[in-house]
C-alpha cells in the first residue's frame, strides 16, 4: 500500500526516500520547482529514487496513510486550510514542537481539524541526512488505537528504520518537542564555553524538566525514557548536525543565526514557559531558553539564575 508525505522539507524528503525502498511514495510540497532535477535543495546531495512522485497538487494525495512533515508552527495554518480533504485517513505527525497559539501538540491539532482520522506520531532520533543516506536508526510510532499502531508500525518500518510502537501519543509527542528546547540549552552551554560537564548537567536536569511537564500532560514515564524522549535528547544535544543545538551554540556565543533555518525549540520554549506558568510547574532551563530566544536575558545572567537556585534533593 503506497504512502504519501506532506511537507517537502529535509525530513519529509528523507522519509520519502526511506519509504521508497518499499514502494511508491507521493511527496507534496508547496514549492516543487526543483523536482525535475530530482534533488531537493532542502536535502542537498540526495537524488530521489524514481518511484517518488513529487507534486504541489494536494488533489494527488489520495493515499490512506499520509505523513505530515511540516514544522509544528506551520501545521495549524495548513490544517485550517486543507484539513478537511485529509479527514478519515491515517495521519502521522512527524513534527517536533508545541504550537505557540494553542499550546497543543501536533496530534491535538490534527485531531481537531480531522476528527474522523486515525492520528499517529512518528518520532525519535533521526537526522534527515542520516535517514536519506540509508543509515540505520530506531523510532517510535505512537497511536492510541493499538491495532492501528501495529498496522502503521509495519507499514512505515523500512529496511533501515526499525519502528517500536506505543499507544502513548502524548508521551511520544512531548519527548520529541521538549528535547529540542533542551538541545538549545546544551548548545548554549557549549557555545558559551561552559564545557562538557555543564552540557551533561543541562541534559540531565533538562530531562527532569521533560519528565515533569510530560507527567502533567498525562504522558507515561516509560515513553520519555524511550527513543522519542531520551533517545532523541541524547542525539540532539550531542551533535552539530542538530539545528537546535547549533542555534543554542550561536546564542551562547553571542553570534547571529540564519533566521530561515527551522529551529523548532525556539517557539516551543516559549510554549513551554507558558505551560509552566499555566500548570504551576518549575521548569527553569526551558523558561530561561525562552528568555534567551526572545533576547530578554543574557547568557551569563541565565547561568547565574540556574547556579543560584535554592539547593534541593535530586
Ligand atoms: N530535519 C530533520 O533532521 C528532522 C526534522 N524533524 C521535524 O520535521 C519537521 C519539519 O522539519 P524539516 O523538514 O527539517 O524542516 P525544513 O526547514 O527542512 O523544511 C520545512 C518544510 O516545510 C514547508 N512549509 C513550511 N510552512 C509550510 C506551510 N504553511 N505549508 C506548506 N509547507 C510549509 C517548507 O516549505 P518551503 O520550502 O516552501 O518554505 C519546507 O519544505 C519539524 O517539526 C522537525 O522538527 C524530525 C526529525 C528529523
Ligand atoms: O529531530 C531531529 C533529530 O531527531 C532533528 O533535530 P534538529 O531539528 O535540531 O536538526
UniProtKB/TrEMBL annotation:
EC annotation from Swiss-Prot or TrEMBL: 1.1.1.94
- Which Pfam families does the entry mention? NAD_Gly3P_dh_C, NAD_Gly3P_dh_N
Residues reported to bind substrate: 96, 243-244
The segment(s) forming the Glycerol-3-phosphate dehydrogenase NAD-dependent C-terminal domain are 168-303
Active-site positions on this chain = 179 (proton acceptor)
The entry's localization annotation reads: Cytoplasm
InterPro entries (alphabetical) = 6-PGluconate_DH-like_C_sf, 6PGD_dom2, G3P_DH_NAD-dep, G3P_DH_NAD-dep_C, G3P_DH_NAD-dep_N, NAD(P)-bd_dom_sf
Output the Gene Ontology terms for molecular function: glycerol-3-phosphate dehydrogenase (NAD+) activity; glycerol-3-phosphate dehydrogenase (NADP+) activity; NAD binding
Per UniProt, sn-glycerol 3-phosphate binds at 96, 124, 126, 179, 232, 242-244
Under catalytic activity, the entry for this protein gives: sn-glycerol 3-phosphate + NAD(+) = dihydroxyacetone phosphate + NADH + H(+); sn-glycerol 3-phosphate + NADP(+) = dihydroxyacetone phosphate + NADPH + H(+)
Keyword tags: Cytoplasm, Lipid biosynthesis, Lipid metabolism, NAD, NADP, Nucleotide-binding, Oxidoreductase, Phospholipid biosynthesis, Phospholipid metabolism
**A single GO BP:** glycerol-3-phosphate catabolic process
According to UniProt, this protein's pathway is: Membrane lipid metabolism; glycerophospholipid metabolism
User: Locate the Glycerol-3-phosphate dehydrogenase NAD-dependent N-terminal domain: which residues?
Assistant: 3-148
Binding-site residues, NAD(+)? 7-12, 128, 243
What cellular-component terms does GO give this entry? cytosol
- The UniProt annotation places NADPH binding at 11, 30, 96, 128, 243, 263-264
Q: Please give the superkingdom of this protein's source.
A: Bacteria
Q: Which HAMAP family match?
A: NAD_Glyc3P_dehydrog (MF_00394)
The protein's role, per its UniProt record? Catalyzes the reduction of the glycolytic intermediate dihydroxyacetone phosphate (DHAP) to sn-glycerol 3-phosphate (G3P), the key precursor for phospholipid synthesis.
Record-given protein name: Glycerol-3-phosphate dehydrogenase [NAD(P)+]
From what organism does this protein derive?
Paracoccus sulfuroxidans
